[in-house]
């Protein structure tokens, strides 16, 4: 064992430091990508599950009248419940825009199930009016801090409150994905905000209340929601699994994308490490022969070389694990506003897994070339001659026909002399090209979803909420609003099919104005018809043309599915039907579309001017901040794979140049100039880059469509929404990759090209 360790240490202290550093570098970069990807995929769900546990496991939220909730509270499915919580509906002004708000007084005493979690500041002081704890996600997005004043409107009556803290509430997902935002005040303040009866002012429904409960069996949340949702007086039921899915929708998109990129990182790491290890062993053939000449056995030589590679890999894995662990908290998408940036998580298992992965690849890649090097006759290797290798005769004849200059001919011949090493190097670079194509394609797809909100199930520009306003008066005003191209109404109901619940939506107004992106079948037109999100079809195994019998709240419905459309809310598990199926029920909101030149902000302003202050209006949120984080992270990972592969290309070219140093010295003595020496190395690098681009480009496009369809299906939008990268980018990929290879070749041969020919011909 001591002889093997001495052999490994000798190799690490030897002269091949450039290739040793390259081995450490690629191992570190590959480990960084793997560790960061795995951490990001797990940190969002873990953080949400932690606050769910801290909040007392709020498995079910039931909305309705206090009397109905008092009966629901006695249901044996509950292990524990919070007190029934009355609330007021209102609006709060954020960045000049009114946003729907729900105002309640948190229960005091022993922390009940579903109690909001204070993230900063303090709870409102008892008996002190005018204080509020603000929704953490909305506060972060609007830049609201403790001590700021916010303006509320309840039933048309304005009020100004002072923010004394922020909190996270799990009765629904976080703003802006879900509203209303949740505000918490002292009971005295709640009484002050409620308009007194008999004043002639719009009075909110003070009988509105909610109940949060923890179930005996959390796995039965959906079934219990279906059973409780049909009770009289129950207006809605929200099970925790649905809320959790809504909270993690952005992390689901990002996590799925990272999982796809993990494939490229692993492939790049495998090719890179294998190619680098092979190159190092070929460059040390003479050193291996000298070791055998002084008494080392073949087994000792092979074991020592593998141990040396593993030591290099261990250094790279440790550095990459630290870098990936530090990077992961900065890659979170969608949850930062509500739960904050996740804490640094030290995961020894990811270190162990990365070490096993890289170690296996290193050992596998080192054993075969080490065995081949150790089996070579010592006398042949010690003749002070470089290893032989010839290009295939067909290739030689082809080069003769091309009549290339000696520098270009020699550069291509050097690549073809070592087909195995060249194939590994080109394969790693091809993986990088494919990763870049996938990364750019994902970014383009997300940009298109933001630019065309119908792809995400939001084909509108402004939302109008009018509690107590006459629908006929409101719709007439909508039709006459300047800049409004059309509108439709919306009424949400928790709906059951069998013993499972999902969200259904009654659509009113002009069907043509509800411009949902119908992917198969036709749009919704008449009562008795329905269109479904792709996620709903997958969940229940339905198809276009099927007839389903469901219960929307307390109302039984028989619907024929005439089409499916793109929808990301509730992962696409939504069923839409005409509002005529629920006669006499007022819509929850009116969704208005702007004209071709309008924007959500200008349309919202025109609607406020038209409808007056008693009607809440807010523009559709596009959430560019999270998209920016998503784009940066995806590009960072693509760049990571590209850097790994380019580092491998440079290392392979450098090793090849050192291996051919004696031949280069001979060429220099017969007239090769420094420029020609650089040209031959650049030619070899360009050839590898060209081959990698020609292979990686179609593979990347295929992988992009497959992975994008998987992601879009996972979030409910359905397959077929991939937005291919720009044609100019695809067209420039091949020459750009060839140029990168040429530059790597120049850098690899730069030092040798200026080394005196007498030093090169010594072959040491």
TrEMBL record:
Keywords, sorted A to Z: Cell membrane, Membrane, Transmembrane, Transmembrane helix
Cellular location(s): Cell membrane
Keyword Transmembrane: yes
Ranges where the MacB-like periplasmic core domain occurs: 422-569
Recorded topology in the membrane: Multi-pass membrane protein
Residues annotated as domain ABC3 transporter permease C-terminal: 261-377, 636-755
InterPro entries recorded: ABC3_permease_C, MacB_PCD, Macrolide_Exporter_MacB
Transmembrane segments: 253-277, 309-331, 351-371, 423-444, 632-654, 685-707, 727-749
Family: Belongs to the ABC-4 integral membrane protein family.
Protein's name according to its UniProt entry: ABC transporter permease
């Amino acid at each position: 064992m001591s002889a093997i360790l001495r052999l490994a240490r000798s190799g690490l202290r030897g002269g091949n430091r450039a290739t040793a550093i390259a081995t450490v570098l690629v191992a570190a970069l590959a480990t960084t990508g793997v560790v960061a990807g795995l951490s990001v995929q797990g940190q969002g769900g873990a953080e949400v599950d932690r606050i769910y546990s801290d909040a007392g496991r709020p498995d079910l939220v039931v909305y309705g009248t206090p009397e109905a909730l008092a009966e629901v509270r006695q249901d044996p499915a509950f292990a524990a419940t919070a007190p029934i919580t009355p609330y007021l509906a209102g609006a709060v002004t954020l960045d000049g825009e009114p946003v729907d708000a729900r105002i309640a007084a948190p229960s005091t005493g022993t922390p009940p199930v579903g109690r909001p979690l204070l993230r900063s500041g303090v709870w409102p002081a008892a008996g002190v009016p005018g204080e509020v704890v603000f929704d953490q996600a909305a506060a972060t997005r609007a830049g609201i801090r403790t001590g700021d004043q916010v303006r509320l409107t309840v039933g048309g009556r304005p009020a100004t409150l002072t923010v004394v803290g922020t909190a996270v509430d799990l009765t629904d997902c976080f703003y802006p994905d879900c509203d209303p935002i949740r505000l918490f005040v002292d009971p005295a303040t709640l009484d002050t905000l409620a308009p007194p009866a008999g004043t002639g002012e719009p009075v909110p429904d003070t009988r509105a209340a909610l109940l949060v409960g923890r179930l005996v069996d959390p796995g039965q949340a959906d079934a219990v929601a279906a059973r409780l949702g049909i009770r009289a007086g129950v207006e809605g039921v929200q099970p925790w699994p649905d809320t959790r899915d809504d909270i993690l929708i952005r992390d689901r998109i990002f996590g799925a994308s990272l999982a796809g990129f993990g494939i490229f990182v692993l492939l790049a790491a495998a090719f890179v490490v294998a190619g680098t290890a092979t190159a190092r062993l070929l460059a040390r053939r003479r050193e291996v022969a000298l070791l055998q000449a002084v008494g080392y056995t073949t087994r000792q030589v092979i074991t020592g070389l593998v141990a040396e590679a593993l030591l290099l890999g261990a250094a790279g894995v440790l550095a990459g694990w630290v870098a990936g662990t530090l990077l992961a908290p900065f890659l979170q998408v969608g949850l930062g506003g509500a739960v904050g940036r996740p804490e640094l998580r030290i995961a020894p298992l990811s270190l162990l897994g990365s070490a096993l992965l890289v170690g296996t690849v290193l050992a596998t890649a080192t054993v075969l070339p080490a065995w081949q090097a150790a089996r070579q006759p010592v006398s042949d290797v010690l003749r002070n001659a470089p290893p032989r290798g010839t290009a295939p005769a067909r290739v030689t004849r082809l080069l003769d026909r091309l009549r290339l200059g000696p520098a270009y001919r020699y550069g291509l011949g050097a690549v073809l002399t070592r087909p195995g090493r060249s194939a590994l190097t080109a394969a790693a670079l091809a993986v990088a090209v494919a990763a870049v194509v996938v990364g750019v394609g994902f970014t383009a797809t997300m940009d298109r979803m933001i630019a065309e909100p119908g792809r995400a199930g939001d084909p509108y520009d402004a939302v109008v909420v009018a509690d107590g306003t006459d629908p006929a008066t409101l719709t007439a005003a909508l039709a006459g609003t300047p800049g409004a191209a059309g509108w439709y109404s919306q009424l949400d109901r928790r709906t059951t099919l069998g013993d499972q619940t999902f969200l259904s939506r009654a659509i009113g107004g002009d069907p043509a104005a509800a411009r949902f992106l119908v992917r198969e079948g036709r749009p919704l037109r008449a009562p008795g018809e329905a269109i479904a999100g792709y996620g709903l079809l997958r969940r229940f195994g339905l198809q276009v043309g099927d007839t389903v019998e469901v219960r929307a709240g307390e109302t039984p419905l028989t619907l024929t599915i005439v089409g499916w459309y793109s929808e990301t809310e509730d992962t696409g598990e939504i069923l839409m039907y005409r509002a005529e199926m629920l006669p006499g029920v007022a819509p929850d909101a009116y969704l208005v579309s702007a004209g071709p030149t309008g924007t959500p902000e200008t349309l919202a302003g025109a609607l406020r001017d038209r409808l007056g202050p008693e009607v809440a209006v807010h523009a559709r949120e596009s959430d560019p901040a999270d998209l920016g984080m998503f784009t940066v992270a995806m590009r960072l990972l693509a760049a990571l794979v590209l850097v790994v592969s380019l580092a491998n290309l440079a290392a392979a070219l450098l090793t090849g140049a050192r291996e051919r140093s004696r031949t280069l010295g001979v060429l220099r003595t017969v007239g090769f100039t420094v420029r020609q020496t650089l040209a031959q190395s650049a030619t070899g690098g360009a050839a590898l880059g060209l081959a990698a681009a020609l292979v990686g480009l179609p593979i990347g496009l295929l992988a992009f469509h497959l992975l994008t369809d998987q992601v879009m299906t996972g979030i409910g939008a359905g397959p077929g929404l991939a937005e291919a990268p720009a044609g100019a980018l695809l067209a420039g990929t091949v020459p750009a990759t060839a140029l990168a290879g040429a530059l790597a070749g120049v850098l690899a041969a730069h030092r040798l090209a200026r080394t005196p020919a007498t030093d090169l011909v010594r072959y040491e």
